[in-house]
Amino acid sequence: MTFAQPQTLKTIAEIIGAKMIGDEYFKVLGTNEIHRVKAGEIVFVNHPKYYDKALNSAATIILIDKEVECPEGKVLLVSEDPFRDFNSINTHFTRITNFSTELHDIEVGEGSQIHPSAVIGNEVRIGINCIIFPNVVIGDRTIIGDNVIIQSGTVLGGDAFYYRKLNGNFDRLISVGNVVIENNVEIGNNCTIDRGVTDSTIIGEGSVLDNQIQIGHDTVIGKRCLVASLCGIAGCCNIEDDVTIWGQVGMASGVRVESGTVLLGKTGVNKDLKKGTYFGLLAEEFKEYLKKQSKLKKLQ
Fold first, then answer.
1. Measured between alpha carbons, how far is residue 255 from residues 106, 178, 270 in Å?
2. In terms of CATH, what superfamily is 107-288?
């Protein structure tokens, strides 16, 4: 999430009551999740296992639960509960409406058709010549390009599936990001595309999604990708251009799939993949899979 105006470390520390380590006038541009964070942004960490990852990330402001040595060129915000305070910062700078307030700041381009049963949130942008079918839900801050088709029952901009367990209950990390659908995208019936926690979930130009697909928060799908029905793609994945994903593929969070890759039906992806054709519960090169099956048959 990028703030409307740059803030200072002191301002952020006062909002959450945290201790500052570093220049109180250090510029803070926004917040972000660890997989997408950039210089000028805050990332949070609340477990020693991930201290090094956060401190060595691109983030220049680290919201942390213990005072540690501060890397050069960075600053710290020391908090007793970084998860809670990350939520506090995000909701301080982003209005959460959940369709409960009067609609405002919606732009719809010339020639776009929106069925009366569609539900649209606030600060939504829809380009020209789009078709929005019945019972589509478009959440706050969603951006839709030109010539986009969204079939019935699809939900854009649901909350991210991002929780921690606290006192026996699940505590949600509040989603203040959005969904961006680029030009010439087609999305089938009953798909669900979650908004980013603090950044954008992106469907690239010219991509086509079949029915009943789930795409998690902060995932980026490249240009001209083809995704068949019943696929489940977790958060923070990076699927590059011209990737084909056949039915019932499951993808773990944070993986990268190289341009031009083909994932055959029911493939499970739990690691980064170079360009190729893959199949299997734990994705393996399809030719290697066939060779293995041939050898197994000869043993029978």
1. 34, 20, 7
2. Hexapeptide repeat proteins (2.160.10.10)
Pairing of β 178-181 and β 143-144: parallel
Tell whether the torsion through CA atoms of 261, 57, 85 and 10 is positive or negative: negative
Catalytic residues: 217
* CA–CA dist 215, 158 (Å, integer): 10
pLDDT for the residue 152: 98
Q: Which mean pLDDT values do the consecutive 10-residue runs of the chain (300 residues) have?
A: 96 98 98 95 96 97 96 97 98 89 86 97 96 97 98 97 94 96 98 97 98 98 98 98 98 98 98 97 91 80
Could you tell me the pTM of the whole model?
A: 0.94
What would be the CATH architecture of the domain defined by 2-93? 3-Layer(aba) Sandwich (3.40)
Instruction: Kindly list the domain boundaries of the chain, sorted by start residue.
Output: 2-93, 107-288
Six-digit token string for 158? 């649901």
Amino acid at 50: Y
**Distance of alpha carbon 43 from alpha carbon 50, whole angstroms:** 11
Give long-range contacts, CB 8 A cutoff, 24+ apart: 220-226: 222/259, 223/182
CA–CA dist 135, 129 (Å, integer): 19
Decide: 240 and 257 in contact? Cβ < 8 Å: yes
pLDDT of residue 229: 98
Q: How many other CB atoms are found less than 10 A from the CB of residue 205?
A: 19
CA distances (Å), origin 263, targets 29, 185, 204, 233, 244: 38, 20, 18, 12, 6
How crowded is residue 189: how many other Cβ atoms within 10 Å of its Cβ?
17
* The dihedral formed by the CA atoms of 21, 24, 25 and 26, expressed in degrees to the nearest 10: 10
Q: Supply 110's token pair.
A: 């010339």
Instruction: Name the token pair of 207.
Output: 């991509």
